[in-house]
Backbone:
């Protein structure tokens, strides 16, 4: 049930670190669109600004970060211009977040039922039915024996269990948009798949949209319909899942895909890695932020390339995007250059 | 292999064969049981004092002044177990009635100062910014002010009385709780579960009192436990200085003051109230330590 009008639309989002006058952009102008029923992935390595983007959208930034420009339109309403009170009313009901750390995201001194009840009560509900709803929710996220687990404290549950509870809390008020900030990074692989499956199932029930933040391309391939690749605070490539994996147009995306082990290709010695480290916000290079690590670098890269369409539904921010998209993956032409220096 | 919970920091006396019960996994000490017993007796005395005392503790009987402690009565009637003071008032009855004053003052002051300080401290630590600045400067001023001076000022304005003593103690002691509560609020305000609660639409009040307060409570309870004997001592000090209760009401501190002038002729007038104060403070401190050992911030070290 994917419709044309986006449910959530982020325009030119810029979030900066530091006090006034001395700003370092952590997020350098991000555009995103989420439609009903859609799962959109935001991928990138640590420090690329994905979590800050997520927190900016939900307006949950800490005291040192500030969104300095842009719009976050939810059903046409700009969240960034809402009052704190207006925002609070939307939270949970219109936009909910699942965080990375299930071990610490639950209050250690409150029973999980109590915490679940808090978000159930975000919508008007009879007091007598809260407990039943909570038990039903726990059951729906695959917690066995919910009648007794509801009275447990977080420390009595495993990490996977806790993340299930977090998902239950997030979906309890039936949000329109769910932001999942690396929801499974702290969990082992089998648990990861279970949690993501049930998160999708719950969201599909009421046609909500999910912004899935991850650094795991496997997760992207399995769960997302659209992908945004983020590097150094900006989106460098945006595409539907199939063309991204088939024809990556940005050297960074290409590097990410090449650095994954593949079962469908013969082994070719060492996995290639992207050399170097992503730039810090303080030392971001002029022009294309990826150029110091890039095997396809040309002189023009000292100017920042815009995010441009290279095919239907496929955009990339690289001067040589079309050319790179036509190269076969795992082409050894670029691999040695990328590995040079090791 | 030994069970970690069996580790006791206090050396066990050799040949001491009585196995005391455990509390929160740590074996109780003999001193702790003794303290509980002492306080239990005090509480019973405080509750039942009108039925226990042989004499009206404020009624002067000049004929039987400065009688030494004795089990037999001179003029018939009940004996003066702990003697009488310079006005012939029964010391035992005074101590029993004084228990009420001490316990009421201590508990009310700890509760009042605790509630006030915790609310202010949590808000300051959560809100940060200028709220925090204002509150913390106020705390600094308050803590820099000598207690007796503050007490003299306030008692002079309000006049003597039980409620006014409690007010003085609350005014003097809320900053301690505020400091601890503020530190705890700061620690938890940036925690993941507070962020998660915020993301689900919890307001400031809910976050502070529902999510942060229960997490901050453990160190605060320990602070409060150690504050109880302090309050008893301050009340005694104020009454000793004549700043506490009006003369027609009896307290341990005022009895101590009354006994000071006759210490050479009649040691019992000052000694027994003094022992009562000492025993109570010691007992509560021992129990406070017992609590700290079991639930306090450093309980994993012990």
Residues:
């Amino acid at each position: 049930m994917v419709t044309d009008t986006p449910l959530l639309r982020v325009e030119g989002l810029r979030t900066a670190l530091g006090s006034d006058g001395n700003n370092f952009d952590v997020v350098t102008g991000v555009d995103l669109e989420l439609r009903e029923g859609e799962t959109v992935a935001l991928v990138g390595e640590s420090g690329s600004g994905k979590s800050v983007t997520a927190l900016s959208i939900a307006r949950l930034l800490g005291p040192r970060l500030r969104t300095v420009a842009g719009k976050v339109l939810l059903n046409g309403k700009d969240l960034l211009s809402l009052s704190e009170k207006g925002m609070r009313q939307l939270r949970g009901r219109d936009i909910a977040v699942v965080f990375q750390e299930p071990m610490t995201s639950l209050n250690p001194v409150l029973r999980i039922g109590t915490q679940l009840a808090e978000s159930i009560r975000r919508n008007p509900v009879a007091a007598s039915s809260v407990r039943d709803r909570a038990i039903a929710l726990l059951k729906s996220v695959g917690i066995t024996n919910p009648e007794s687990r509801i009275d447990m404290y977080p420390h009595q549950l495993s990490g996977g269990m806790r993340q299930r509870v977090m998902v239950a809390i997030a979906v309890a008020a039936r949000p329109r948009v769910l932001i999942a900030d690396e929801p499974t990074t702290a969990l082992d692989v089998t648990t990861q798949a279970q949690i993501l499956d049930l998160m999708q199932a719950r969201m599909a029930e009421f046609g909500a949209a999910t912004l899935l933040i991850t650094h795991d391309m496997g997760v992207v391939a399995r769960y997302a319909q659209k992908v945004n690749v983020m590097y150094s605070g900006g989106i460098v490539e945006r595409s539907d899942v199939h063309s991204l994996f088939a024809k990556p147009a940005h050297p960074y995306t290409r590097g990410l895909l090449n650095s994954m082990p593949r079962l469908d290709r013969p082994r070719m010695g060492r996995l290639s890695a992207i050399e170097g480290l992503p730039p810090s916000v303080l030392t971001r290079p002029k022009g294309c932020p990826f150029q110091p690590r890039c095997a396809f670098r040309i002189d023009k890269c000292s100017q920042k390339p815009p995010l441009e369409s290279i095919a239907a539904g496929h955009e990339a921010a690289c001067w040589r995007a079309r050319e790179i998209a036509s190269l076969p993956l795992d082409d050894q032409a670029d691999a040695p250059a990328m590995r040079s220096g090791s | 292999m030994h069970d970690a919970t069996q580790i006791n920091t206090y050396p066990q006396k050799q040949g001491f064969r009585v196995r005391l019960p455990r509390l929160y996994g740590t074996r109780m000490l003999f001193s702790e049981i003794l303290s509980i017993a002492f306080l239990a007796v005090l509480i019973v005395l405080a509750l039942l004092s009108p039925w226990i005392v042989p004499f009206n503790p404020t009624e002067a009987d000049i004929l039987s002044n400065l009688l030494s402690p004795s089990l037999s009565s001179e003029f018939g009637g009940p004996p003066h177990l702990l003697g009488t003071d310079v006005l012939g008032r029964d010391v035992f009855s005074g101590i029993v009635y004084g228990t009420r004053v001490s316990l009421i003052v201590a508990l009310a002051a700890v509760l009042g100062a605790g509630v006030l300080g915790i609310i202010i401290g949590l808000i300051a630590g959560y809100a940060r910014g200028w709220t925090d600045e204002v509150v913390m400067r106020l705390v600094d001023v308050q803590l820099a002010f000598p207690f007796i001076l503050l007490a003299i000022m306030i008692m002079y304005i309000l006049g003597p009385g039980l409620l006014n003593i409690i007010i003085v103690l609350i005014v003097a002691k809320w900053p301690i709780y505020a400091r601890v509560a503020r530190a705890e609020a700061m620690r938890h305000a940036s925690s993941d579960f507070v962020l998660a609660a915020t993301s689900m639409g919890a307001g400031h009040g809910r976050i502070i009192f529902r999510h942060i307060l229960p997490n901050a409570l453990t160190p605060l309870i320990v602070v409060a436990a150690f504050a109880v004997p302090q309050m008893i001592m301050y009340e005694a000090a104020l009454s000793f200085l004549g700043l506490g209760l009006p003369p027609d009401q009896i307290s341990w501190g005022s009895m101590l003051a009354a006994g000071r002038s006759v210490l050479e002729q009649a040691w019992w007038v000052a000694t027994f109230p003094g022992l009562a104060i000492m025993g109570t403070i010691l007992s509560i401190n021992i129990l406070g330590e017992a609590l700290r050992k079991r639930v306090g911030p450093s309980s994993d070290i012990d």
